[in-house]
């Protein structure tokens, strides 16, 4: 694998303050958070937000809103059909069996949700350029949908579950941000991923931020200056990548 499977560190982090600005709608039978552009920029471009194991979360909605504030129509589908991990406490108390949970949420169930979202954006909203952001669990699906060019650009923070074959097959640009302390995307996996990406001949970027752990780009402790900087830097990386590649 180019990154390891999800683990306990996926459940760490902090809930952020703020009120989401978007609204829940449906794409087919999939619950989806919609948050629209705040101005007329990038009217032909959209971002699909691919979540971590918490599914449609408060923090995720706030991040989706931030992408919309940068001029991108942003949609955030429920990749997990409501079967998300509700809280870190559920895992640590034994209420969630991650092996069993993971077996229910593989490409056979997740891919069709993303494909339906892409079809909606292209055929109903008439979006010309589609990017995807993927956090942890969602990072795998950024790579999968770059394989045959179904999306036009991708970004992932602290990805999990990406296979070497998926990464080697990307056909569009990919940006990655990694944490220094991450058992899921450790140093050897970063180096391996870099070697694979060079061979794809696609534009790519890998940034490493010290002093943070897996999950920092979504669930950082914003009261800690270093963690706040890292989360903000990860977001700016994504936005600048899409400004460049879309």
Automatic annotation (TrEMBL):
Residues 40-243 form the Dienelactone hydrolase domain. The lineage of its organism: Eukaryota, Fungi, Dikarya, Ascomycota, Pezizomycotina. One of its GO terms (molecular function) is hydrolase activity. This is Dienelactone hydrolase domain-containing protein. It comes from Helicocarpus griseus UAMH5409. InterPro entries: AB_hydrolase_fold, Dienelactn_hydro.
């Amino acid at each position: 694998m180019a990154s390891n499977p999800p683990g306990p560190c996926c459940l760490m982090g902090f809930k952020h303050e703020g009120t989401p600005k978007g609204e829940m709608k449906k794409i087919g039978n999939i619950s989806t958070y919609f948050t629209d552009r705040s101005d007329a920029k990038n009217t032909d471009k959209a971002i699909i937000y691919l979540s971590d194991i918490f599914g449609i979360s408060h923090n995720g909605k706030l991040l989706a809103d931030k992408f919309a504030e940068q001029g991108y129509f942003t949609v955030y589908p429920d990749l997990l059909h409501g079967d998300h991990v509700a809280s870190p406490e559920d895992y640590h108390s034994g209420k969630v069996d991650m092996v069993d949970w993971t077996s229910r949420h593989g490409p056979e169930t997740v891919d069709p949700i993303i494909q339906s979202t892409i079809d909606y954006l292209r055929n109903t909203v008439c979006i010309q350029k589609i990017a995807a952001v993927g956090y942890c669990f969602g990072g795998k699906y950024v790579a999968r949908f770059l394989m045959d060019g179904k999306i036009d650009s991708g970004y992932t923070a602290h990805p999990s579950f990406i296979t070497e074959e998926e990464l080697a097959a990307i056909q569009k640009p990919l940006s990655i941000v990694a944490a220094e302390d991450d058992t899921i995307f450790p140093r050897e996996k970063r180096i391996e991923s870099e070697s694979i990406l060079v061979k794809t001949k696609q534009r790519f970027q890998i940034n490493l931020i010290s002093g943070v752990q897996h999950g920092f780009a979504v669930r950082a402790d914003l009261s800690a200056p270093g963690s706040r900087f890292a989360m903000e830097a990860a977001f700016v990386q994504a936005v600048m990548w899409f400004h460049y590649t879309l």
